[in-house]
Design goal:
The protein has a single domain, classed as 3-Layer(aba) Sandwich (Rossmann fold). Helix content is 46%, strand content 18%. It has five helices and four strands, in the order βαβαβαβαα. Helix 1 links the parallel strand 1 and strand 2. The two termini are 16 Å apart. Keywords: Riboflavin biosynthesis, Transferase. It catalyses: (2S)-2-hydroxy-3-oxobutyl phosphate + 5-amino-6-(D-ribitylamino)uracil = 6,7-dimethyl-8-(1-D-ribityl)lumazine + phosphate + 2 H2O + H(+). One of its GO terms (cellular component) is riboflavin synthase complex.
Length: 165
């Protein structure tokens, strides 16, 4: 019996071009997410010269800028960062849902990982907790996911699973 094929991303073979696309709305929270993402990339050996930082007004505008980055910059991965905080209207659900859906569609269309670091929270306190305090830094976590996916996809690129190589 053959051993089970196991493939997982490693934090090696992660060097490449990364685009960080950032919604400025709620910048007091989002700025910390950006710092966490850049720090995680650089700590793992990604050169600052290979990081493109693109700012858009808010989460609604993220998918279009991500699409342009994928088309013209051809990054190995995109890290989308932003913060959508629930208010008193259904606006939150529309923005968060459409942003997430569009990001998923784009990563499948372009066959490029898009790490979702867009906070969708009920309160400003929850956003602050997730941007570098009690709940960690979701920007850094998104960068880690992006690097892991770059490594994984590179391994899968020439690999045949479930048959003769």
């Amino acid at each position: 019996m053959q051993p089970i094929a196991q493939v997982e991303g490693r934090f090696t073979e992660i060097d490449g071009r990364y685009a960080i696309v950032v919604g400025r709305f709620n910048h007091h929270v989002v700025d910390s997410l950006v710092e966490g993402a850049v720090d995680a990339l650089v700590r793992h050996g990604v050169s600052e010269e290979n990081i493109d930082l693109i700012h858009v007004p808010g989460a609604w505008e993220l998918p279009l800028a991500v699409k342009r980055a994928l088309t013209f910059l051809e990054p190995d991965a995109v890290i989308a960062l932003g913060a959508v905080i629930r208010g008193g209207t259904p606006h939150f659900e529309h923005i968060a849902g459409q942003c997430n859906s569009a990001m998923n569609t784009l990563q499948l269309e372009f066959d490029t990982p898009i790490a979702n670091g867009v906070l969708t929270v009920n309160t400003i306190e929850q956003a602050i907790e997730r941007s570098g305090t009690k709940a960690g830094n979701k920007g850094a976590e998104a960068a880690m996911a992006a690097m892991e996916m770059v490594s994984l996809l590179r391994q899968l690129g020439g690999m045949r699973i479930g048959g003769d190589a």
